[in-house]
Amino acid sequence: MVILDGGLATHLEALGADLRDELWSAKLLLENPSVIRQAHLDYFAAGAQVATTASYQASIPAFLRRGLSVAEAEDLIQLSVRLATEARDAHGEGAVAASVGPYGAYLANGAEYTGDYDLDEDGLFAWHRDRWEILASAGADFLACETIPSIVEARALKRLLGRTPGVRAWISFSCRDGERISDGTPMEEVAALFAGDQRILAVGINCTAPRHVSSLIERVKGKPVMVYPNSGETWDAGRRRWTGLADPVEFGAAAAEWHTAGAAFVGGCCRTTPEHIRQIRAHADRL
């Protein structure tokens, strides 16, 4: 089992960062890059074998909207990879995955959980192209296409991968239930899109409730399976507390079950922390 990192933004907030901004964690590429490096180091120390960069929401259009130039935007996207690489090198081992967030992350309206976009496949191809080319040449070990909500965006990313020989990637989807990704496409259908592509390391599920993961694993054929769900927390208004797999020990035990069910890559997404990854590591060592 390859152990991924956990929620980068979640840990950055624990380290004192204020991410109340449409750039989210990418805001810190401008304001405090050293804390991003520290977050990567903390995940490596907890047992993660892969650092996922802070480029999820770091698109050129988003930085231009903030008033930066194209050159400045490109530099910040490259910086996201450099920070993760520096943390990896300081730790002494591991890999760097350059995060390719969905178009919905730029929209900042929750569309990464619906796939309700105002662009077609050609439009998505064009929107992703510049950042893709920057990340593909920035020195990461592979690209992480993550929280993809629609088959249309998946097709656009597959086309971009075809334009960059020598680049490998994983693709993971946000899912609405145990059968379908966020736009309603069956998981089997989007997995089949990549089954014969040797440049794809894994197909998987992220930013999705843990209760759906086991069923989704069964629906991915032809590629190694990757899962890094959210903590599964929901707000219980009656008891005024978060409920779900927030407990790292429970999350680690669930991760072991996902591995047994067929997941080759396991980690966490939103509201998971280095302690969640430490528990996955402990279960992996026992396995």
UniProtKB/TrEMBL annotation:
GO terms for biological process: methionine biosynthetic process; methylation; S-methylmethionine cycle. Binds 1 zinc ion per subunit. Its cofactor is Zn(2+). It comes from Planobispora takensis. Pfam families: S-methyl_trans. One of its GO terms (molecular function) is S-adenosylmethionine-homocysteine S-methyltransferase activity. Zn(2+) binds at residues 207, 269-270. The keyword Zinc applies. The keyword Methyltransferase applies. This is S-methylmethionine:homocysteine methyltransferase. It comes from the Bacteria. Keywords: Metal-binding, Methyltransferase, Transferase, Zinc. Residues 1-284 form the Hcy-binding domain.
